[in-house]
Amino acid sequence: MVGEVHVERVIGKKVRDADGDVVGRLGELVVEDLGGEVVLTEIHIGPSAMLERVGVFVTQLPYFTLIPFPRWRYRVGWQDVDWSDPDHPRLRVRKADLERTNIERSS
User: Fold this and answer.
1) What is the DSSP letter of 50?
2) Domains and CATH numbers, the chain
3) How would you list the strands of the sheet with 72-77, edge to edge?
4) Rounded to an integer, what is the distance from CA 21 to the centroid of its chain?
5) Which of 26, 50, 61, 78 sits 20 to 30 Å CA-CA off 7?
């Protein structure tokens, strides 16, 4: 088990599922402060996850509203990710078993 993974090494990496199929690029890591210890709780994969890094507010700017950004992502619990090779993150589940989360467009 990996105890520490550097964020800058994994953000933007392709993530594969248990069958070896590409799920998407890792866009966001969600962490929580649990009693003074920062703990990874889930990862976000896919087009909207990448937008989280830039800030969803960018998509609300006048010119950006004309661009049809994909508005979905996968949310995956930390326990479903194999970090033994941080350069090649792999899910312990199949892509077909993941639930796609739609992101609503703000007006």
Assistant:
1) H
2) 7-102 (2.30.30.240)
3) 81-82, 90-91, 14-16, 22-34, 37-45, 72-77, 100-102
4) 16
5) 61
Instruction: Give the amino acid at 47.
Output: P
The alpha carbon torsion through 56, 73, 34, 3 (nearest 10 deg) reads: -120
Token pair for 102: 């739609």
Average pLDDT (51-58) is 60
List the structure tokens of 99.
Answer: 């639930």
Does the pLDDT of residue 23 top 90, yes or no? yes
Quick one: tokens of 103?
């992101």
- Residue 34 CA to residue 36 CA, distance in Å, equals 6
DSSP letters of 61-101?
STTGGGS----EEEEEEGGGEE-SSTTS-EESS-GGGSPEE
* Structure-token match 């996850």, residue found: 49
